[in-house]
């Protein structure tokens, strides 16, 4: 690696040709696996949120009885999670289509879902923590790799 003042570091590739560090990521496929992963996880989390939202609105026996919530009650959070889940399912298809708006919506709804999952810890603790972790990975995949547009 050689560094000159005012330029990015240059790395030697396998064929002996130097490439700058910014040129290493110029290929359009770099990070696309993260985008596919984020879309897939967003779809799975959306389906789970839809199912658990319906269960919460219906007052199913799946949730912990007598749990105290920070804001409102289980029925209200059921509606929040249900609506978030439906939008997440639709957004996942937009992410796979490489729609920029869908990428931003994916980040926004993964953040919203992460907050909702932390507030629903009394209802189902282990699942809330697991879904929060998946939301963090979704935000990472979309924020870091979701904005790269493939060249035609």
Fold and architecture overview:
This protein has helices at residues 32-57, 74-96, 100-119, 125-145; strands spanning 10-12, 18-20. Strands 1-2 form a two-stranded antiparallel ribbon. The protein has 2 domains: 1-27, no CATH class; 31-145, no CATH class. The model is unreliable at 7-11 and 19-25 (pLDDT under 50). A hairpin with a 5-residue loop joins strand 1 (10-12) and strand 2 (18-20). With 152 residues, the protein is mainly alpha-helical. Helix 1 packs antiparallel against helix 4 (125-145) and helix 3 packs antiparallel against helix 4. The longest helix has 26 residues, at 32-57. It is built from 4 helices and 2 strands.
Structure described in brief:
The protein has 152 residues and is mainly α.
Write the layout of secondary structure elements.
Elements: E1 10-12, E2 18-20, H1 32-57, H2 74-96, H3 100-119, H4 125-145
Antiparallel strand pairs: 1-2
Helix pairs in contact: 1-2, 1-4, 2-3, 3-4
Q: Could you say which overall geometry the principal axes of the C-alpha atoms support? A: elongated
Mean pLDDT: 78
The Rg value, from CA coordinates, equals 20 Å
Q: What profile does the largest beta sheet have?
A: 2 strands, antiparallel
Output the number of helix runs: 4
Question: Total number of β-strand segments?
Answer: 2
Low-pLDDT segments, ≥5 res? 7-11, 19-25
Helix content estimate = 55-70%
When the domains are counted, the total is: 2
Order of helices and strands: EEHHHH
Our measurement of the CA-to-CA distance between the termini, rounded to an integer number of angstroms, reads 32 Å
Overall structural class, as computed from helix and strand content, comes to: mainly alpha
């Amino acid at each position: 690696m050689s560094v000159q003042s005012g330029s990015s570091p240059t790395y030697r590739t396998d064929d002996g040709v130097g490439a700058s560090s910014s040129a290493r990521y110029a290929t359009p496929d770099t990070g696309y696996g993260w985008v596919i992963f984020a879309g897939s996880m967003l779809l799975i989390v959306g389906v789970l949120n839809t199912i658990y939202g319906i269960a919460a609105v219906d007052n199913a026996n799946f949730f912990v009885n007598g749990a105290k919530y920070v804001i409102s009650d289980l029925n209200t959070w059921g509606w929040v999670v249900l609506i978030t889940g439906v939008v997440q399912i639709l957004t996942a298809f937009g992410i796979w289509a490489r729609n920029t708006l869908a990428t931003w919506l994916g980040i926004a709804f993964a953040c919203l879902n992460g907050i909702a999952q932390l507030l629903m810890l009394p209802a189902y603790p282990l699942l809330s923590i697991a879904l929060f972790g998946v939301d963090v990975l979704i935000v990472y995949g979309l924020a870091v790799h979701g904005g790269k547009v493939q060249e035609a």
